[in-house]
Structure formats: structure tokens, C-alpha cells
Amino acid sequence: MVFHWSSLICRSKCVFLKNSSVLKQLIRLHSRVSPSMLHVARPQKSVTPPSENKVLPVFRHAERFASRTAIRDRHGDYTYEGIFLSSNQLAVQITEILRGRQGERVALLCPNDASYVIAQWACWMSGQIVVPLCQDHPLPVMEHYVRDSDVALILAGQEYLELASQLMEKGRQMLVVEDALRVLARRHGPNRAVSSLAAADEEVDLQPNHILKGGLDDEFYADSDALIIYTSGTTGPPKGVVLTHSNIQHQAYSLIRSWAWNEKDIILHTLPLHHIHGIINVLLCPLFVGAKCLMLPKFETSQVWSQLLSINMPAQDRINVFMAVPTIYAKLIEEYDKIFSKNARMKEYIKTVCTQKIRLMVSGSAPLPLPIFDRWEEITGHRLLERYGMSEVGMALSNPLKGERKPGFVGTPLPQVQVKIVASTEEGEKVVAEGNEIETRIPPGAKEGDVGELCVRGPTVFRNYWRNREATNKCLGADGWFKTGDSALYSNGSYKIVGRSSVDIIKTGGYKVSALEIETYLLGHPDIQDCAVVALPDMTWGQKVAAIVVPRQGKEVILSKLREWSKSRMAHYAIPTVLKCVEHLPRNHMGKVNKKELVKHMFPEKAK
Ligand code: AMP
What we know:
Rossmann fold, binds adenosine monophosphate, 608 residues, single chain, GMP Synthetase, Chain A, domain 3, globular, alpha/beta
């Protein structure tokens, strides 16, 4: 069953935006619906103060910033009020379609613009669990997400109708998030100007100081599930990570405090919206504090550079926060080298603008290679703040906002996050470091630099894998400690991620080496553009170090020469003994390489 939002509102069968009289009709309806949802406040504004003890979903904060711009996308600006009101309308329809049921899984297949936010808020206002999909994923992956989470309803943007219809199965419904919803949200502009699409005869009196009513009672959000994010599936089929409203609030506030998010911030959003990085760090953090999120439909180097440099941008619209994954920084550097590197004045200008206008640049979701850290600093004057996190725990470790950011390290625990490093020894498991926001302790018998599995505990840690008790029990203990599967060490006041224990710790000739560390060295080679280091089974050495590299354009990389070059840089046992050159590495949206798949593909005879 497919519903069009506007048809539900208008009770006509199917209405499309192109029909401007219909649009006007919708706008009229919207203005009529609004007053019932808007309670005009008394002169002193009654706002809900942000509280970290009480769980308040993001939309509950909207009234504090009602007339501020929440989102800017390629179509225009949307205030918090506009987003709230459109979401509320959509929430009514969702409730109707799901016959008042709550806790249903609702898949989002929306473009990266205000419609995604409206759909997300609408799901939460109606008490549903959001399952964000990625339009670029192959169909079988999307099918796995919707089947595994037993999606009852798909919210699809108009451009994804065909795609969404391929995911329809018996009992599943679809609701079209028509552009009209977004257009209506825009009417509630920062100066309360009525959009040009609204008829001149329809001046709507939107009083300041509205209280925005919508959503369920606060108690509902105290302990209910909000979001299912699917893991990248490097260790089996993707699992649905269930995050509660409380998890989301703790994850967001932990970052808001540490990175000093405030309502003056403007962040550029170029990340996919099915992943924790794009959802929590870049979208929800700003929306919790009344800041502005500038959404690009997708990552494009020239667009990002033009935003970073605020070309043709009034001062109040300049972005001052940017967050991305290492591959994005690598691509921006490549573009910079192509376009600006021979222009000394431009280079100076870029550095000045970035240093003076941007307050924070963050990297995460994959290891940040040292050459990228250094080069980015050279170009922009920013020492990238690297942080570590994962879908199951949100962000756990972060370099400081103020203070020394150590390249190759991921800093210390964020507020409310407890971590420990557990090493496997002959005598059994042993904690070799344990810390929180305030301090890290090395227990007696352990020393700095000891490597073990990183474990995380705290209110940011997910509830469970969706309907997968076995997988949950494997890594989430009854004591609340979650085993991340990442190897880490603590040294000199900071944590370092050594790699995924399952693929990045290579045991060769009795030595343990980190694939990430070797990759960082190799990326410092002048002829290597990108690389992945993997372990191959070997009769003599246990495992062999193999490098799969992408040579720079017009360059050749030869094993004997690479080994010679490596001698002065890395331990002899870490130097790759196998080399394969490829044109590009298969990285996912977050810049990660699935190494198990890579070995299967590149060395089929070696893959188990
Ligand atoms: P995801 O759940 O898709 O965000 O993936 C989480 C995984 O990404 C972690 O378990 C790490 O293996 C990796 N990761 C995230 N941030 C970093 C980082 N700064 N350095 C190294 N690995 C990272």
C-alpha cells in the first residue's frame, strides 16, 4: 500500500507538487493546522531547559530556537519551527497508517536535505524506530536491512519511489514524503516571511514565542528505542544496532560539551545519513543546541571547498565547523593540489580563511593517516581533531578541543564514557588500562603501551543488536561493558587504536604488527596514493604482511624498491613481503575497506 502524504491530507487520491493550486491548498491547510498545534505563549517565554537527566528527543528542543534557521539545503532555509510543524503533520499520517501502533520500524529513504530531518522527527514524534537506508547501497543490502528489522513502513522521498517500491513486501506500507512538506516547512522563515509560493492573500500570523506541541508524552522517550543503524558487516551479515532515545541524548550531549557546540555554530553536512557519524555528530548535535546545519546532497570536493572558503557568502552564513572521514580529507587535498597548489596567493588566502573562520575540523570513523593530518595542517592551519567511535557506542574517545591533538592518537574518554583495555595473556584476561573523562589508570602489573581489546561502558552504549541475542551476548556483558573488537593502547596521556583485532593485528614470525601503522608509513611514500595492508596465511611465518597499493598517476610501485624504502622507516618484520597494485581500493561510504572481502578478491587462493 502506497500513500502520498498530500493525498492523505487532502483526502484526494494522489497530488503532486507541480500543481501549484494544490500547493496553495496545502499551504492553506498547513496554516489552518498550525494554530491548533501552536499555543501562543505568555509574554515571558516558557521554554524547556536542556536537561541531561530527563530524556528529551531533539524535536522537543525546537521551541527554544523556533525562529532560528535549523537547516539550509539546496532549496533554502528552514527554521526549527518550520521543521517541527511539517514533522508533526507527517507524524499524524504515520500514526494513522500504523493505526496508532508505536515502536514500529520505519525505514527512511530520503535525500540529504530537510525532508530527511522532517521524516526522522516525524517518526520520533509518532513513537516509531527509525531505520535509515542508504540510497547508494545495492538492493540486497537494503533488503537485508528492511527484512531483518521487520520494517512496517517506508518513508520515501519522491525521487526514491521506484527504489522504495522494490523493497515493498506483503504487510509493508509506503508513505511518500512529498516535496510539499519541505516547501511548507520553508514558509516559517527566519523573519517569518511567507514563502513566495504562498499566495499573497495568505499572510499567516505567526506570533513569536510559540510553544510547539507535538510528539508523545515525555515518559515515552525515557526508555524507548529510537534508531537502528546497521553495522558495516565486516564480520558477517550487517547487524542492527539499537539505540534508545536516551543513548542518542547522551551521545549528543557528550559531544556538545566536549566540542563546545553552541547555537552560533554552522556545520557543513556532506556525510551519508545512515551512519552514526552523519546522524549524531553532524546532524543531531547542532539541532540539539539551536545551531545551523548546511546540508549538501552528497559529497563533492568543489562544493565543499567553496563552502569552506565561504565564496560569495555573507558573514552570517559562513560555516565554522566541519567533520568528515579521512578519505574526504584525502580527496579535498587532491583537489587542492590540482587547483590551487601553484597559486601562492590563493594558498595563503585558503590558510587564512580556514584558520580565522573555522573553529573546528574533526576526522573519524576510520584511522586518520599521518600524511593526511600533516598535509591538512599545512593547507588550512588546522590540526584535525581525531576521535574514535562506533555505531554501538557513539563517540568514545576524542582529542581535546583545546590542548594538544596528537597525530595517530584518538585522545581520552568523552564525558560519561568509561573505557578499559583488556589484554589476553597466558594467565587469562588482564586489564592493562582503565579510564574515564578525568583520568586513566594503569593497574599494577601492566605498563603504558600494552595492547589489548578496547571495551566501553556508559549511557551512550547501545541496547542490543536487533532481535539477535546471541550477537548481543557475545560482546555486551551483563555488567554493561561492550567489547569493541578494536585493539588499542594507552601511552603518554592518550589512547591509540591499533586496528580491528580480527583483521588489523598481523602476527608474523612471532611479532604482532599493526596493519594501520604500516599503512600510515606507506602513505608517506611519494608514489603511493592509497593503500590497505592485510595478513595472508603463511606456513613459515604464520602470517605474511601484504600491501595492496594504488600508485599515484603515472607512477609505478615495485616491491623490491618499496622494501628498500621501508627499511629506514619500519621494523624489518613489518615490511610487506607481498605487493599488489590496483587502480583503486573498494572503500565504503565512510572510507572503510572491508579487508576480509579484499583478501578474498585479491588473493582467492589464500582466503579461508
Ligand atoms: P562504525 O560503527 O561503522 O562507525 O565503525 C566503527 C569502527 O571504525 C571502529 O570499531 C573502528 O574500527 C573504526 N574507527 C572509527 N574511528 C576510528 C579512528 N579514529 N581510528 C581508527 N579506527 C576508527
